[in-house]
From TrEMBL:
<protein>
    <submittedName>
        <fullName>Unannotated protein</fullName>
    </submittedName>
</protein>
Amino acid sequence: MSAFEALSRDLAADDPLLAAALVNDPTGEGEAPVALAIGPGTERAASDYSYGLEAIREGHLLHWGSARFLSTDDDDLALLAGDRLYAAGLERIAALGDAQTIAELSGLIMAAATARAEGLPAAAEAVWDASCARIGAGS
């Protein structure tokens, strides 16, 4: 089961509003920047890292209006779903006992949100790329 399929299943089970917002054919799974996180630092639990990172990425995209597998015109629902996905992703990776990656992700979430709020989407994407590359390398 892919990370998108697992996330969709979990969201559908969580809340009927989120279930109704799921996209039938989502795009973007396994693409950059999350693809950069595939490497020696994540190979021991690749599916858990993929789930966690895709959830956090989707949470970020929901907050900034360009989600991949959830679609809603309700800004409040998008914000809440984004928060739910941030939490789900962090929870999945925290369960691995990987404090270094949790610290990296905390910095990523803050820096990417700051860049977006300042109107610098390219800088936000650069933060994503750099953080995912460090996670994949295990550094």
